[in-house]
Amino acid sequence: AKAQGKHRITEYNPQMGEENLRRISMEQQLRDALRRQELSLHYQPKLSVCRHEVVGMEVLLRWHNPVLGTVSPAQFIPVAEQSRLILEIGEWVLEEAMQQNLAWQRQGLPLLPMAVNISALQVHQHDFVPRLISRMTRLGYPGSRLELELTEGVVMEGAIPVRRYFEQLRQLGVRISIDDFGTGYSNLGYLSRFPLDTLKIDRSFVSDIDAQPDKQQIVRAIVQLARSLSVSVVAEGVENQQELACVEALGVDELQGYLFSRPLPAELFSHYLGATRGV
Ligand code: C2E
Ligand code: CA
Ligand code: CA
Ligand code: CA
């Protein structure tokens, strides 16, 4: 694979040149994004089935750059990972999100857990967990209001020390969820040994599920697996009533998607909470 990579670089390929340039310029801009305060966080509600009460939220990173405009995380997160900038950015996300959650608490809004996406590179730092714990201690942030969304890869590579780390976090009430579940290569043996709370079904299985029996089979299987592991299931990307009815019938526990709300900036999210919770 390495030789092939080398070959590709020497080959004349204007499109690849363009892509490289774009990536390099994105990386340069991203390097300064934190300092220039171009990053912000949006919050998307998670709701309970049936009653559709807000039971939590997911924190999603946003980037607006004067040169590049608004860049989607699907584009810049991979660049941040390749350049390892995600380490610094990830720290900022955790700090900013916890501060925001505490600010909502001071405003008397409902106390809700907040799910933060954590990149594999962050988890692979040997001191990720101790630093997270000291951050929570410094801020007075309760573990019960934090959930970490990890990818399947992180859990599957999860050597024993990694598992111990997460067990430590769970003792503080922090929840662990596997994001994009169903798209990776989960090994059931590993899965059952990893300290887990939630499986988050990938959006690709929810999209148009009402019209696609194969997707219904997959979601049914994931729900069964979750039951046997005693973890809960979240369906993300619920966009319409048909998809909602379908995932509810299949027995998922929580819902997230544009049908209820898009990810919102902090101020709009607190209005949404106030409106739905009668604050
Ligand atoms: P994800 O963790 O799977 O996040 C869910 C994505 O689905 C979000 O995209 C969200 O806006 C989108 N979404 C939610 N409901 C719907 C829906 O009903 N329909 C559709 N079409 N989309 C929906 P977003 O915000 O563009 O983020 C993309 C990915 O970027 C995330 O996927 C996550 O992997 C990554 N990401 C975002 N923020 C962070 C972060 O702070 N740290 C890290 N490491 N990754 C992040
Ligand atoms: Ca996520
Ligand atoms: Ca996902
Ligand atoms: Ca449909």
Automatic annotation (TrEMBL):
Residues 23-277 form the EAL domain. The chain holds residues 317 to 595 of 596 of the full protein. This is Bifunctional diguanylate cyclase/phosphodiesterase.
